[in-house]
Amino acid sequence: MKKFKKRQLFGTILIVFGLIAVFPRPQNFNGVNPLRVAKGELPILIAHGGGNQEFPDNTLEAYYHAYSLNQSVMLETDVNLTKDGVIILSHDRSLDQKTNLTNADIIATNYSDLVENEIDFGYHNPISGANGYNLSNTFIKYTNYLGQEVSPLDVNYPVGIEPRHPSKFLVSTLEELIIQFPNNLINVEIKQTGEIGLDALEKVIELMDALSEEYQTYQRIILASFHQEVYEELNRLKSTTHKQLMFSPEFNGVLSFFIMQTTLTSVFYSEPVAAFQLPTEQLGLSLTTDLLINTAHMHNIAVHYWTINDETSMRELIEKGVDGIMTDRPSLLQSVLSSYQN
Fold first, then answer.
1. pTM for this one?
2. Which of 9, 146, 251, 308 is deepest in the core (most CB within 10 A)?
3. Distance of alpha carbon 306 from alpha carbon 280, whole angstroms
4. How is the chain split among helix, strand and coil, in percent rounded to 5?
């Protein structure tokens, strides 16, 4: 009798899991997802910081370069809030690595001063410490993946666009990026954390609101952050005042989906995200499985991978049918994509 009951319980569990596995998945993103590609299409080329192994990252010049390679390029950028309330493009929360300034937290720095003094973002200095400061006061000019120094004059600009400066890579703002590339998808990561990060997000939303009618900001900008408080605020905005908002989850959101798709229970995954932005592996686990990609697509969630800088990995992801590949080498990825079109 006990064996029968155990078998009955086991059978019931199998039936329940079987029903869950075939139950229609919720559409976490409603409508046409602009971050996905149709089955059989090549993935979106996503220029990480504009392609930071080819030009200084998070500069307009880097994005112009990526655009010259592929006019449909998706532009990935990192943003920080300045002391005088401007959202500038910067991977770090301090300017020590990318400029010739030291002990320069962005939140303590005025954008107006960066403009007035023509601060050059064409450096790649050594930094150390939790705050990312150039403690040794060593200044090293940026060089590309070939070890060559580059200048704004090396960029192939669109017709009608002139270099901003003959030798310096000047500060760039999110507003400039949106306006200069009115038809491109843009991935915006909030880098600051805590109350400052929330203030930065508020400024980004204000900017998107102000430009939404003319530049379709909510149809082509996806927001991201690794910080829980910022992600929670994105969820709140999505559920209340900004239902058209697109964003990707932070680590916990990805982890919960990974567990659910592994156990075939992703029907319970309800995060209102538009895309997963993933490394190819985490904690020794592959994140490029067919199951993960296909399950995400069943939820109408795009799958983008970072940061892919070698041809073999690019081709493997293309063959898997991913939606986007983020790279520091947009010229290499474009070459690979072109080989599939010939």
1. 0.92
2. 308
3. 7
4. 40, 15, 45
pLDDT band at 7 (very low <50, low <70, confident <90, very high): low
| Residue showing tokens 């969630």 | 301
Number of Cβ within a 10 Å radius of residue 175: 15
Q: Is there a domain that residue 160 lies in?
A: no
The span from the CA of 35 to the CA of 178, in Å, is 17
CATH code assigned at 281: 3.20.20.190
Residue 6: inside a domain, yes or no? no
Which phi and psi (to 5°) does residue 133 adopt?
A: -100, 150
Backbone angles phi, psi at 215, to 5 degrees: -115, 10
- Alpha helices by DSSP H, listed for the chain, are 2-22, 60-69, 111-116, 174-180, 194-215, 217-220, 228-239, 251-262, 290-298, 311-320, 330-341
What's the CA gap between 185 and 195, in Å, rounded? 27
Nearby residues of 22 by Cβ (< 8 Å), 6 or more positions away: none
Which of 144, 205, 145, 215 lies closest to 179, judged by CA?
Answer: 215
**Confidence (pLDDT) at 17:** 43
* Count of structural domains within the chain: 1
What is the C-alpha separation between 191 and 179, in angstroms, rounded? 21
| Host domain of residue 311 | 33-92+172-341
Residues in the chain: 342
Closest to 327 in 3D by CA, of 51, 34, 67, 111: 51
Of 5-14, 74-83, 107-116, 126-135, the least confident? 5-14
- Rounded CA separation 129/227 (Å): 20
